[in-house]
From TrEMBL:
Name of the protein this chain belongs to: Membrane protein YeaQ/YmgE (Transglycosylase-associated protein family)
Origin superkingdom: Bacteria
Keyword Glycoprotein applies: no
Biological source species: Nonomuraea thailandensis
UniProt keyword annotations, A-Z: Cell membrane, Membrane, Transmembrane, Transmembrane helix
Family: Belongs to the UPF0410 family.
UniProt keyword annotation of Chloroplast present: no
Annotated localization: Cell membrane
UniProt membrane topology term: Multi-pass membrane protein
Subcellular location, principal: membrane
Stored InterPro entries: Transgly_assoc (IPR007341)
Membrane-crossing segments per the record: 6-23, 30-54, 66-84
Length: 96
């Protein structure tokens, strides 16, 4: 159980950082929020991969990791588009 939590944090950190690198433009997110998005993506990706039987392979589970990365990219896009990063995404300026 502790090993699963530690691996979720480590994989989540890697997946979250990769997701921020893959999303174009500047993401106004803190490191903590990046970790949370990555950890959630890693856990949900693992659950989906296990549900479909994609995580029970010999060697590296590439499908599971690609799924985790895709979910992290979606998570980073959602967080930045919803303005949940630093500063709330609002500058006080109106668009004309």
């Amino acid at each position: 159980m502790i090993g699963a939590i530690v691996s979720a944090v480590v994989i989540g950190a890697i997946v979250g950082a990769l997701a921020r690198l893959l999303v174009p433009g500047r993401q106004n997110m803190s490191i903590g929020l990046t970790l949370i998005v990555g950890i959630v993506a890693a856990l949900v990706g693992t659950l989906i991969a296990h549900a479909f039987g994609w995580a029970d392979t010999k060697g590296i589970d590439w499908i599971e990791h690609i799924l985790q990365l895709a979910l992290a990219v979606i998570g980073v896009l959602l967080v930045t588009r919803m303005g949940m990063g630093r500063g709330g995404g609002r500058t006080g300026r109106t668009m004309t």
